[in-house]
Design brief:
Blueprint lengths: L5 H33 L13 E2 L16 E7 L2 E7 L1 E3 L5 E6 L14 E7 L2 E10 L2 H17 L17 E8 L2
Parallel strand pairs: 1-7
Antiparallel strand pairs: 2-3, 2-6, 4-5, 5-8, 6-7, 7-8
């Protein structure tokens, strides 16, 4: 048997380190995909939203009022970030997101003007565009839609007293189809 020279051992080191690094990257990717398939869950954000994709534009979102929570996926830097939140459709079919104390929420700080996103309702994923609403009259209409929806659900989460005024630090985002 011949002994390996010191030079042969050193030449294998980059290959071993590269293979180990690639293995860690593959394991991290697989772990993130598994995590994405189970979350967002309760207050823990998730990654990608999986589901059947709806490519037809949605003009009337009133069906969203039958879904207790909506799931939203945005891009936070280089990674997807998904959350559960209340969404509500107005009587004319516009869809809004509800966000209390939103100035403290991680996801809201990553939403710019005409922000591309994905919305999952009952397992169907819709490509959408988000815009923060700052017009007081439109915010009041969204708040009223929230009031109506939450008080019509069998187990309303965070339902306001019917007819209560819009609270401070409550934000809303208009959701529109992007296809």
């Amino acid at each position: 048997m011949s002994e390996q020279s010191e030079g042969e051992k050193k030449s294998r080191l980059p290959m071993i380190l590269g293979g180990g690094g690639a293995g860690v990257v593959v394991l991290a990717f697989v772990g993130f995909m598994i995590y994405s398939s189970t979350c967002p869950c309760d207050f823990t954000p998730g990654g990608f939203l999986f589901g059947d994709r709806q490519d037809e534009p949605v003009a009337d979102w009133r069906f969203a009022n039958q879904v207790e929570l909506c799931q939203l996926q945005i891009w936070a830097g280089i990674r997807p970030h998904s959350i559960n939140l209340n969404c509500m459709a107005s009587p004319d079919g516009n869809l809004y997101l509800s966000c209390s104390v939103c100035d403290t929420k991680y996801w809201a700080s990553h939403v710019g003007e005409n922000e591309p996103a994905r919305m999952r309702l009952d397992g169907i994923v819709y490509p959408v565009v988000l815009n923060r609403v700052t017009d007081s009259a439109e915010m009041d209409r969204a708040w009223q839609a929230r009031d109506i929806k939450l008080n019509s659900l069998p187990n309303p989460v965070g339902a306001p007293t019917p007819g209560s005024p819009r609270v401070e630090r409550w934000w809303t985002f208009r959701v529109e189809s992007s296809t």
